[in-house]
Design goal:
The protein has 310 residues and is an alpha+beta fold. Helices cover 44% and strands 18% of the residues. Helix 4 packs across helix 5 (140-153), helix 4 (113-133) packs across helix 10 (290-296) and helix 6 runs antiparallel to helix 7. The longest helix is centred in the N-terminal third of the chain and has 32 residues, at 12-43. The radius of gyration is 32 Å and the shape is globular.
């Protein structure tokens, strides 16, 4: 009677243990393989996007191609003022200035008349290309990126400090007085060059508000609470090259801007940012695009450029 022993079924769970033990081994190996693959895909975008950002060498052929292909706004059907319908005249062996759209260029006495015209045309093309690329005037920094990028395509080697808040006292100043302070800091080591810029600002200040010069400049900033403008000085180098001293400004206000160079600056109501630097202009490239620039800008020049003796 004691011989009928029940077969022990308790050993069967041991088989289940073996099955369970096999599965974790395989699952632990797989995630490790997936984690190792991820870092390779993260590294790809950064180097690939930064390499094209390095400026390629500008040649005469590439500059001409840029001028021909540049997308510009439609030209005005006729000059907006009858007294602007004249070709700007550039002088020799005397300081001079010109308003070019939203900018003002001054020239020391040593800059030849032909180069003055070339610089004005190059600046105007860069402005128009930036206007077409960034039509919204409130997008000031992208506009400047497009503007300086276009100048580089025309053989300007631009070095700039980057935009920063105007560091001086604003309350009670007019915009042109802040510009004088920035010019003094930039051109302090070159008193003769500084004198030309200050004479230009004096000339603008003394002009009738309806003069062609002021009309062109203010038209670019009309009916807006934010705007930008540029002040530049061209200087002939002893080796025959050209040096451009560049100042760029961004102005934002609580109210609409009128006569931007004579706008009253009030703390907490106005934000003024500045950028300054220099550019060496490749005179060979500048001369090589002369004809192409004149052709592209034939319908714009009289409406956007005016010269004044200082």
């Amino acid at each position: 009677m004691a011989t009928k022993k029940k077969l022990v079924p308790r050993r069967q769970p041991a088989k289940a243990k073996k099955v369970i033990a096999k599965k974790p081994v395989a699952s632990k190996v797989m995630p490790a393989a997936k984690k190792a693959a991820k870092p390779a895909s993260i590294k790809k975008p950064t180097p690939a996007r930064r390499k094209p950002a390095a400026p390629a060498k500008v040649t005469r052929a590439s500059a001409r191609a840029f001028v021909i292909a540049a997308r510009l706004p439609a030209a005005p059907r006729r000059p907006q003022r009858r007294d602007l319908a004249t070709i700007p005249e550039f002088a020799e062996m005397t300081p001079q200035a010109a308003v070019v759209g939203s900018g003002v260029l001054s020239f020391t006495a040593g800059v030849p008349a032909q180069r003055r015209e070339d610089l004005c045309n190059a600046t105007l093309l860069a402005q128009l290309a930036a206007n077409r690329k960034v039509p919204d005037r409130t997008n000031i920094m992208p506009w400047f990126d497009a503007y300086f990028g276009a100048l580089m395509q025309l053989g300007w080697s631009v070095q700039q400090s980057g935009f920063r808040e105007y560091a001086g006292q604003l309350d009670g100043l007019e915009t042109h007085q802040a510009v004088r302070n920035v010019a003094a800091a930039l051109l302090g080591p070159s008193p003769a060059a500084l004198a030309v810029v200050l004479s230009t600002l004096d000339a603008m200040q003394s002009m009738d508000r309806d003069s062609p010069w002021i009309t062109i400049f203010d038209r670019e900033h009309r009916d807006s609470k934010s705007t930008h403008f540029q002040i530049g000085l061209a200087d002939q180098l002893p080796n025959g090259g050209l040096m451009m001293h560049l100042m760029a400004f961004s102005l934002e206000a609580n109210s609409k801007l009128t006569q931007v160079l004579f706008f009253k600056l009030r703390k907490k109501k106005v934000r003024l940012q500045q950028n300054s630097g220099q550019a060496i202009v490749d005179v060979g490239v500048l001369a090589s695009v002369r004809a192409a620039l004149k052709k592209r800008l034939a319908d714009h020049v009289t409406d956007f450029i005016a010269t004044v003796e200082i």
